[in-house]
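Q: I'm building a small set of examples for a reading group on sequence design. Run inverse folding on the following structure and report the sequence directly after it, with nothing in between.
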């Protein structure tokens, strides 16, 4: 941890973490440097504080698998008093989400949807409000907490809510877990390489980097009328923007 580049994660290689005989791949992009610390006490408190801090500071929740991994290594940790409470809350939310599962719809993303034209073709003559996000994006998850500010308006005006995830295919479980966790009613697309390329060209002007969350408004004629719309947290301002762009 004295090596600056290792702290930044730029030299961390993919690793295999074995938990209860089940292999879990730690992808370079998702790896946290403190997992490589040999001092178990330091590792325990950095790891535990990160898991709990996601709820306290970011107003979101770690996934249960991450907490179970922590429990495997530190079954007597004082952090479990707090983390077990989070597990109970997470499971309760998952039950509520399953009760509303019929309102969460997955589209055949990587096989038939390779461009915005393909998305528009799924919803002919209907306006769309598109949310571009990823399961690893904390600001995206924070915005989900504000969905109720605009959901009623979208439903009343028959505006289709479409979520496009920029997650890699290997993160499909995390993608679906977040959708159910936040009860994201609407249509969901896991963007394949061709759709991601079309997004970069049409929304980010061909740049090789992107920022999320990003919101778009498409009118009933399939025309992108706003490629950098306001956020759900903007509430009434977003509703006003939708009215101006669509009606």
């Amino acid at each position: 941890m004295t090596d600056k580049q290792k702290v930044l994660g730029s030299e961390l290689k993919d690793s295999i973490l074995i938990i209860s005989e089940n292999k879990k791949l730690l992808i370079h992009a998702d790896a946290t440097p403190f997992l490589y610390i040999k001092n178990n006490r330091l590792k325990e408190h950095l790891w535990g504080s990160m898991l709990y801090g996601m709820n306290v500071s970011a107003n979101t929740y770690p996934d249960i698998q991450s907490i179970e991994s922590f429990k495997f290594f530190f079954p007597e940790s004082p952090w479990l008093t707090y983390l077990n409470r989070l597990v109970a809350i997470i499971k309760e939310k998952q039950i509520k989400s399953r009760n509303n599962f019929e309102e969460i719809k997955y589209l055949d993303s990587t096989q038939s949807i390779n461009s915005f034209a393909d998305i528009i073709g799924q919803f002919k003559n209907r306006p769309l409000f598109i949310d571009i996000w990823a399961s690893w994006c904390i600001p995206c998850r924070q915005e989900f907490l504000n969905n109720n500010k605009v959901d009623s308006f979208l439903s009343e005006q028959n505006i289709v809510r479409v979520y496009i995830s920029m997650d890699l295919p290997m993160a499909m479980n995390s993608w679906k877990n977040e959708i159910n966790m936040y009860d994201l009613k609407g249509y969901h697309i896991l963007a394949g390489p061709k759709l991601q390329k079309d997004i970069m060209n049409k929304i980010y002007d061909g740049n090789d980097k992107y920022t999320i969350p990003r919101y778009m408004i498409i009118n009933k004629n399939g025309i992108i009328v706003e490629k950098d719309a306001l956020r759900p947290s903007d509430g009434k301002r977003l509703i006003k923007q939708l009215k101006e762009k669509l009606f």
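The chain has eleven helices and eight strands.
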